[in-house]
Amino acid sequence: MTFIQPLPPPYLLRLFLFLSWLLQFHVLNAQTYTNVTLGSSLIAQDNNISFWGSPSGEFAFGFRQIQKVGFLLAIWFDKIPEKTIVWSANGDNLVPSGSKVELTANGNLNLIVPETREQIWKADYSDNITAVIAYAAMLDIGNFVLASSDSVHLWETFKQPTDTILPMQTLSRGSTLFARYMDTNYSKGRFMFSLQSDGNLVLYAKHSPSDFDNNSYWASDTNRNNSIELVSNMSGSIYLASNNGSIIYTISPNVVSSKDFYQRAILEHDGVFRRYVYPKSSTTSNISTQRAWFSLSTTPSNMCLILVDEKGVGPCGFNSYCMNDQGRPTCHCPQGYSFIDPNDSSKGCKQDFVSQNCDDHEASPQADVFRFYEMPNGDWLRSDYNHFEAVTEEFCRQNCLADCFCAAATFRDGFCYKKKSPLSNGRIDSSIAGKTIVKIRKLGNSSTTSQGQGSGLSKPEKKGRNSTLIVVGSVLLSSSVFLNIFLLLVTLLVTRSNNLKKTKEIQQGLIFPGMDLICFTYEEIKKITNEFEEEIGSGASGTVFKGLVPSDGHNGNYCVAVKRFKNIVAQSETEFKAEVDAIGRTNHRNLVKLMGFCNSEQHQLLVYEFMSNDSLASVLFGDSSRLNWKSRIQIALETARGLLYLHQGCSTQIIHCDIKPQNILLDEYFSAKVSDFGLAKLLKTDQSRTTTLIRGTKGYVAPEWFRNMPITVKVDVYSYGILLLEIICNRKNFEATTLVETQMVLSDWAYDCYAARNLDQLVKDDNEAMDDLESVEKYVKIAMWCIQESPEQRPTMKNVIQMIEGTIEVPIPPDPSSS
């Protein structure tokens, strides 16, 4: 976010610069030093943080253990639970336990592995040839210095930045910030933030961390100002200033007080330069009621649209696409592809199916083998190799289908752009017109039998084999004219039956036009689930089974969840169509993806992506180890985002109607995804409410269901409020007490504890939550607003997310039952 400030008169600028310099000089020289004497050292030890602290204790210099991989010599904020690192020495080379950083007797600061005596890093102050180091000190502004006896800084971390700048820090021309590789990997990544010698401030991307070819994706365009520096002043405002005191370019203005907030600005691993603040006290902030880092500005605001790599990688790598999630670029794989490295999405996606064979001229029509996955508002730049004008979308599809080189195609305003593999610079954004279709192989159609599962015979092969048997039979029975005529009639009947069956299946696929879903036969479903062998869940409308689908690539099988409806009656037929129509048109990271369906005679089934960590109910109420406090709140936030998409992000507004822990599923990384749209109620664009029979689950149903009132999205907000209380307290909404055999209602108990200021009773068995009762209070207040009896008093899901993230304050809620 860029703010250009009008320049005041020159004499005011000079006065401002002088006063700022005088103030900063005074602060720097007024620092209370806790000297680190020559000969001092620190040892890296497991589960024992070794550091030199600043006088106030706000910053520390020493060793931090990184995911049990090794130790990082670093500076961090030490008064906050997160211990956020702002500088590091050996990000590319973590050291083992027992390593030592030593300020030697002759003033050298060295990082050494004692066993090998290998010097991993040292503070280089060789420019000061005559320098004599007298001591070291960790300052209260986050700067670690080596100083002479008269307190002149001969070396300092402020002049050797890594990825972060702090208030009171200045970068001169030629200085560069290097983003880390990943959030928890401190080696140098792909992105750089550089103040060039000509005065231009530039964000660069590299093809890989080891690449030397830099690609600029953002610049301040201030290259006509040779005398320039980047300033982060005492209040955290970040700007480019010339030597005469004029502010040339403002990156992030001052909007908060340094007295009330910790501040930092960082070039993060995704290539975005962000300024963060952290409230020192929850009572002093009108920005965030939660004591956590909160982003004030991002540069650039949408990385997905700005970074277009000449080499084709973009923010996310080949065959993947980028989506902007509240200023953060997130990487995704299209259907038929998967991440090369699930732990590093920037490496791109690999194709999970066998490509179209250019030499297979005798194969069945490609429409029988391949299909298209649709990406509305999507594109892959720099992948075009051919295009057509004034054509239809159907022409575009058929032309790509017939071309073995075509991996995808973009159709926009009568133009068809064919894309070659690997696909590059992918992104989806509402500002992109048209759609992209990705060609993928249909399930069960592999060009080689070694990748197939089951009989190993493709449909064309089986057809040829049956024809051969008929011909052989005819020859053997040629002595009987009657038998030949009989055999011919049987062949005609079988062929006609197969054609009718195929026509029926095609018609079934037309039940849900415009959706790119796999239409399974019932026999395929039985094979996938091994005759419905493993049940993984059940509900009022159906049972869910685990299935294994053969991959078209070389990676074996992948898991799916198959939902079978219990009774095929009028109501479940409606539910089936509602669920396919609702989920099939959605696309959000916090919603379970529908992959296909079966609608064959009396069999109606849905095929979803498989969630490896089961449901939220299983981890909240099960016997296995429970989720920690931060993980639970993250799940609450992700669930709210999924609901917001259903309420506001879809072309047709969807009321879920059955939000509960059993319908919040967790993937392998414990990210939450809303599932089970079997009871979903769809609203047209001109509707805001509807009337229907009572739907949902006891304990989560909003009061208006029982009062013949119109039903709106606020029924989901009510259910979410109950769910949020269960997440906070790690217990069910209805639960038998230990003292008497009665049911204690969680919502009533939670409000009583809140009103009596006894919130510790809600989380008394959770040490992490007990240490963060301010946050517990905030989330309880949010839940109380969600379960107000009057729908008008409940917030929208957008408001809920804003309250969770801290962008708006949470007012004091009334008693939910008072109305």
The number of distinct structural domains comes to: 5
Number of helices: 14
- The average pLDDT is 80
Identify the CATH homologous superfamily of the largest domain.
Transferase(Phosphotransferase) domain 1
Largest sheet: 6 strands, mixed
What distance separates the N and C termini? 44 Å
Walk me through what this model shows.
β19 (228-232) and β20 (238-242) form a beta hairpin. This protein is 22% helix and 28% strand. Residues 1-33, 446-482, 499-514, 682-691 and 736-743 have low confidence and may be disordered. With 819 residues, it is of the alpha+beta class. It folds into five domains: 31-155, Agglutinin, subunit A, CATH 2.90.10.10; 321-441, no CATH class; 459-509, no CATH class; 518-609, Phosphorylase Kinase, domain 1 (2-Layer Sandwich); 616-805, Transferase(Phosphotransferase) domain 1 (Transferase(Phosphotransferase), domain 1, Orthogonal Bundle), CATH 1.10.510. It contains 14 helices and 47 strands. The strands form 13 sheets. Strands 36-40-41-39-38-37 form a six-stranded mixed sheet, sandwiched between helices. Strands 29-35-32-33-31 form a five-stranded antiparallel sheet, covered by helices on one side. A four-stranded antiparallel sheet has the order 1-10-11-12, with no helix packed on it. The relative contact order is 0.05. It is globular.
Sum this structure up briefly.
The chain has about 800 residues and is an alpha+beta fold.
Topology (SSEs and partners):
Blueprint: H1 10-29, E1 36-37, E2 41-43, E3 51-53, E4 59-66, E5 70-77, E6 85-88, E7 100-103, E8 109-113, E9 118-122, E10 135-138, E11 144-147, E12 153-156, E13 164-165, E14 169-171, E15 176-182, E16 185-195, E17 201-206, E18 214-219, E19 228-232, E20 238-242, E21 247-252, E22 261-267, E23 273-279, E24 294-299, H2 303-306, E25 321-325, E26 328-332, E27 337-339, E28 349-351, E29 370-376, E30 378-380, E31 384-388, H3 393-402, E32 408-412, E33 415-419, E34 426-428, E35 435-441, H4 459-476, H5 481-509, E36 518-519, H6 522-528, E37 535-538, E38 542-550, E39 557-565, H7 570-584, E40 594-600, E41 603-609, H8 616-621, H9 629-649, E42 653-655, E43 664-666, E44 672-674, E45 681-683, H10 714-729, E46 734-736, E47 743-745, H11 746-755, H12 767-770, H13 773-786, H14 797-805
Parallel strand pairs: 25-34, 36-40
Antiparallel strand pairs: 1-10, 2-7, 3-4, 4-5, 5-6, 7-8, 8-9, 10-11, 11-12, 13-22, 14-19, 15-16, 16-17, 17-18, 19-20, 20-21, 22-23, 23-24, 25-26, 27-28, 29-35, 30-34, 31-33, 32-33, 32-35, 37-38, 38-39, 39-41, 40-41, 42-45, 43-44, 46-47
Pfam families: B_lectin, Pkinase
Protein name: Receptor-like serine/threonine-protein kinase
Subcellular location: Membrane
